[in-house]
Automatic annotation (TrEMBL):
InterPro entries cross-referenced by the UniProt entry: DUF4280
Highest taxon, organism lineage: Bacteria
Name of the protein: DUF4280 domain-containing protein
Pfam families, per database record: DUF4280 (PF14107)
Amino acid sequence: MADGIQKMYEHQEMKGYGGYEYVVRGAEVSCSYGSKTCVLNLKDDHGVHTSDGRPLITENDSTTDNIKGFGMCNKNRSKPCECDPKLGKWWATDNSNMKIFDTAVGEESYAVMEDSLATCNKGGLVSFKTSGQTLPSYDNVKIKYAVEIVEDEKKNWSRKSDKKDFIGHVKVKNSGIYNFCIYIDYNIRKSITDLGSIFIYWKNMLGSIKYIGAYELIEKVKGSGEICIYAEIILNSGIEYYIEIDAPNMYQFDYVLKGNLDQHILKKVKTENGEREEVSGVWVINKEHEDIYPTNYEKMVKENHHGATRSIYYLNSWYALLLEKLIDNIIDSRSIPRWVSNILNVTAIKVGMDSTSAGVALSVLLLGFDNIYDANLKKFRDNLKKVSSNNDYIIIEVKSNRYPGDWIYERDRPVIVYNYYHYNFSGSSELCIGRQLEGVKYEKGSFKLLYKFDTSISVNDVINNEIKRICDDMEGIN
């Protein structure tokens, strides 16, 4: 009983003079023009926490790193658009009685209470629906009855008679990005206005439980019509986690935890110029994973003895030849040519996309080469020629080996590689409509698609003409 009173006392200390609670990571935020609420994240905390380990925010924590958006913006009701929040500082009220040293600005800033407001440059008024604080939700009773979550095992979960949040326990074998997926009936989904959030805690070696992050549940409708509500969460191997699912309108659902795996099915798409057929594609890793969650990324790289994949090429013979000729141009120049520099420039890629199909193709084919200075390009080109001569379609996996001397694999044969980049080549079955392309499990990336091209046009003509045009466009921009 004494421990419970102490926890209540410590919890109440996180209120200001006016009785409002201080806001912490995981607070629910809404905008007067937004179609939905969002969960406030905090990439780096400021070292001040509630008794249950939730970090307090400051008046400066109103950037897009913390607040991703509120669905659709209805400022113009006749023409709603996707929310792109640009908020000013939180208005810290006169009742705020706490300052925190904010490393982002290098000085003390006021802590924020739940009655604080912020305005968007489009005129929306942003406020807190919750402070993010709750009485500690990981007492012994909840931990004792936590559901055991096993990767890739789909199970049913029913809310207990106490009607409290769903609590689960998980310990994964691989570090990386995971999807916690909830499957519900269409009729149930129609009655839900707030999908809810997932809160993650970790248990240290001393047995203490600490809150580490909140993730907003979002909806995805599969091609089969099945409704999946999910959150992308970051988990490290060998660590015990507790997952708290705050889904106020759900009482029973099927769920599964699985490593993220980006997928795309080649299809025909309608454009302003008619129907186009996707025939090839390039998967490129999202570098935000490395930038925002460096510890998780480092663990993932060290655990993966095949090296960390930066990109995967799925190319038919025409695009493979185009890539080969691009590499020839780079090698022949003996340095990074101006046209390669321009194409790799984000503005040049946009120019290519806005102008011609060939510009898109050249840009996409070079997206996976952030290693443009690599001396192994000759080896890459030779392997590309060899595999292309025996296959109509090829797959190329570009990997980075951050730890020279580690075992990695080529053609199922372990070798020691001391260069930063490494390439795996293989033949592929036909890349036809309906063929599924895949990224790398536990990583997050995106697909850039390549469309059916007029193969009667010389590859050299495509390169020479488009390079000149893109360079000219870049000169005009600069």
